[in-house]
Design a protein that fits this description.
By secondary structure, this protein is of the alpha/beta class. The protein folds into two domains: 39-139 and 202-273 and 369-432, FAD/NAD(P)-binding domain, CATH 3.50.50; 145-198 and 276-362, D-Amino Acid Oxidase, subunit A, domain 2 (D-Amino Acid Oxidase, Chain A, domain 2), CATH 3.30.9.10. The chain has helices at 27-31, 57-70, 103-110, 112-135, 154-167, 178-184, 205-218, 288-294, 336-349, 398-410, 447-463, and strands spanning 46-53, 75-77, 93-94, 145-149, 174-177, 193-197, 201-202, 222-224, 231-235, 238-243, 246-255, 274-283, 301-304, 311-314, 320-325, 358-368, 375-377, 385-389.
């Protein structure tokens, strides 16, 4: 029996993500079909080699690669249902990216050599994701990614990004005028130009995750929903994780909880992620007349150049999906103004769709790190605990590769590999620090004050 979905859950202040809670009412949940079989909640004390906490894309992929490539059959503990968190609430945009920083920002932060190495790693991860989308029936559409300038001043930014991608990293981006965008892709009235990247695959994220679960179960992986970790201790060389149904002992633990990482899960994770809400809606199906009026020629996904960006695309059944940032607090997530932000954006970007009916509306937490880049690491070499967190909203493609790399680390196969010297692998997460707010875990909720101020500044700067 599922417990009710709590739309106001907030990982920064809530003590528990729930036990066996139903999925959020997303379009993906409604259209994914029957979920794969699982192994039921933990119902007695258990012992295993590896525990993975979190049954989203990262946790599923980690378990799959541990079993398939290293012969280690892990148990995956999930507080609610498999694919309950980020992996069933995102926009399904698989980009050749990791974290929030662009490749030009990589150069500024780490220098050209490291940026090129990081590009190779992220590109390899994207290629691996692309291969997976061809193995799994997930409505994959390899149409690339359109990055839309929402103001004339942003055209120079796109020209520079295109130049860096072409001259430094060897990509083939194409700059489009507004007229070319409107003629060949869609009549998006908010855009004054665009950059087209050929790397980009839109997917049905829940179908994709279900396909990965089936692969993992075929290799002996056990999935346990309704099994939240209520306490965690170490005795000798064993990790003891207590769930409502029993304690699980393991030699190694990998944490893959994304934006739903609670403050009380483990000291190494306390106050290390800033959870940020993102809202998404899906409209009713567009009529043929509406398709013609908006001139949708493609299902290529789009994002704009706002700091608080909008991400959107036409789905296979002719619905429009659009998302952006929303409430500061979970308690305020259902306020009508956050839905209005998205419906106003639809009207601005696609005037013929103003007032169109919304069939699905949901929100979810994004895991933002202190430097806007993910970490796949062992934070303390003296403890057999690892995590992969901090995608910042760009985890659809990279999360599966992060799972593969995390599996290598948990299996002890990372020693001596140069790739693990990259910044996303060689240092732990630090506590986010917005506007100088104290980093103490007890004061973590007050970071929301800094977030509110930043949102107001970003909105002013984006729209002035």
């Amino acid at each position: 029996m599922l417990s009710p979905y709590d739309p106001h859950y907030d990982p920064l202040v809530s003590t528990s993500p729930g036990v066996g809670s139903a999925h959020a009412p997303t379009y993906w949940t409604a259209t994914a079909g029957l979920p794969p079989q699982d192994d039921g909640p933990i119902a007695s004390d258990q012992e295993t080699e590896v525990i993975i906490i979190g049954a989203g894309l990262t946790g599923i992929a980690t378990a799959l690669y541990l079993a398939r490539e290293h012969g280690i059959q892990a148990r995956v503990l999930e507080a609610n249902q498999t694919v309950w968190g980020c992996s069933s609430r995102n926009g399904g945009q698989g980009q050749n990216a990791a974290g929030r920083l662009t490749r030009s920002q990589w150069i500024t932060r780490w220098g050209l050599d490291v940026a090129k190495q990081l590009d190779h790693e992220v590109r390899t991860g994207y290629d691996n994701f692309s291969d997976l989308t061809r193995q799994i029936d997930c409505d994959a559409y390899a149409g690339g990614h359109l990055y839309l300038a929402h103001r004339p001043e942003k055209l120079a930014y796109l020209r520079n990004e295109a130049r860096v991608r072409r001259e430094v990293f060897g990509y083939d981006p194409r700059l489009l005028t507004a007229e070319e965008l409107h003629r060949d892709y869609c009549d998006e009235r908010d855009a004054v130009g665009a950059m087209l990247e050929s790397q980009g695959i839109g997917i049905h994220p829940m179908k994709f995750a279900y396909g990965l679960i089936n692969q993992a179960r075929a290799h002996g992986v056990k999935f346990h929903p309704a099994s939240p970790v209520q306490s965690w201790s170490t005795v000798g060389d064993e990790q003891l994780l207590r769930t409502p149904g029993g304690t699980v002992r393991a030699k190694r633990v990998a944490v893959c909880t994304g934006g739903y990482t609670g403050q009380g899960l483990h000291p190494q994770l306390t106050n290390k992620i800033m959870p940020i809400l993102s809202n998404s809606v899906v409209t009713r199906p567009l009529t043929d007349a509406e398709i013609a009026a908006t001139n949708f020629q493609t299902r290529t996904f789009l994002t704009d150049t706002r700091t608080l960006r909008f991400y959107y695309r036409l789905l296979p059944d002719k619905r429009l999906q659009i998302g952006s940032r929303s409430a500061i607090h979970g308690a305020n997530a259902s306020a009508p103004k956050h839905l209005k932000l998205l419906t106003d954006a639809i009207a601005r970007k696609f005037p013929p769709l103003a007032g169109i009916g919304i069939d699905y509306s949901w929100w979810g937490w994004v895991d933002v790190s202190h430097d806007m880049m993910p970490r796949i690491t062992q934070p303390d070499p003296a403890q057999t605990t690892w995590y992969a967190l901090g995608y910042g909203g760009n985890g659809v493609a990279f999360s599966t590769w992060a799972g593969k790399r995390l599996a290598e680390r948990v299996a002890g196969k990372d020693a001596g590999q140069e790739v693990f010297k990259l910044p996303i692998y060689n240092a732990p997460l630090q506590a986010p620090n917005l506007f100088g707010v104290v980093r103490s875990p007890a004061l973590a909720p007050f970071r929301r004050l800094g977030q509110r101020i930043l949102y107001q500044w970003y909105s002013y700067r984006d729209e002035r």
